[in-house]
Amino acid sequence: MNKKICFVIMGFGEKTYRKNTFDLDKTYEHIIKPSAEECGLECIRADEIRDSSSIDKSMYALLIRADIVIADISTCNANAIYELGVRHAVKPNTTIILQEQSEHKYFDLSHIRTVPYSHGGKSIFPEAITECKAILKATINNTLNNNNIDSPLFESFPRLRENAPILTDEEFEIILSQLAKKGKCLYSIALNAKKLMEKGDFQKAAEEWSKAHLIEKNNPYYVQQKALCTYKQNEKEQINLTNAFAIIKPLDENNESNDPETLGLLGAIHKKIFLINNDGEYLRESIKYYKRGFVIDSNYYTGENYALCLELLASRQDTDNTEKGWAKFEAEKVRSEILDKWEPIHKDSKEKWLAATLAACHFSSGNDEKALEYEKIFLNSAEDWERDSYYNNKEIMMNLKQENSNG
Predict the structure, then answer these.
(1) Domains along the chain with CATH numbers
(2) Model pTM?
């Protein structure tokens, strides 16, 4: 590589931490990578060496010799924080730390300058991207043009600089040539999968998520996405839903998962099977999964679906009057809790699925004007398959409302 190298250490995919879920690939795609490249740097992200047989050697080489290291420590990613510690131990300068601004400062890093940014959850909004890129590019240029110490270790013990680890040019060139020959990295696989999803090619997208999962076996995000794409190939075919269940169920072994994404997908699979075969047991299983996802942290997505499934339960002839009354009351209560907690937050986050949830809650309560405002926000940023999911749920809810008004 003739360009200076920027080594990026961070989590990847969607990560949930302290009840917030962030798509960290969006940070890399829209903020870190373009900022580094616009400053003339060649970007290598840590996951690009995940499927290398010499992962430790490559990582340590880059931590020692990269011209710039950018560490995004959002979601308290263990690998990123460990790698940042190694960098601070071997290099007195040229390290930049990023962190999502809503997250708490870690005590040992609280005195170190950090570049903050605002993440919307599933996406980052244009104004936040523009603001953070400007700050990050200025920080990169300032870091490259100055020799200021940014490692707290070297700042405390300046004489350590005389004994800092050295990696020869020859050794470093060997590492770089091995990386250049390496096949696709996790980031490019995930990016390709997302593009296939945008096109509606869920079969090929599922294959890409399978590749990602083979590389990073302990990352539940790739399992979740594979399950989603498996049933999205044809949601009206029960076999696809059954296969999706088999893929994701291991993430909820012994019914112990506290991940709203996993529980939401399990709830969705059972709800969709119920809509195919009208078997009330699937509906009840769906209710259990959605309820767990909502109770854990008042998750709005699982909460709204929990409420919708309760209304479906109340509409069934085989549901007794006592349970019908409870289900209707619980659905109304859940939606009220969602509006109370999440509507004020939407002003800052503007997350599209939160907008969709708020629209559903307002439609249910009869506030169509407000519902349409949120619906417009969602539709403006949603992909085609996401719009389909929203409209399917909306149709069910509106049909239930019509039945209740006629009854």
Answers:
(1) 4-181 (3.40.50.450), 186-406 (1.25.40.10)
(2) 0.70
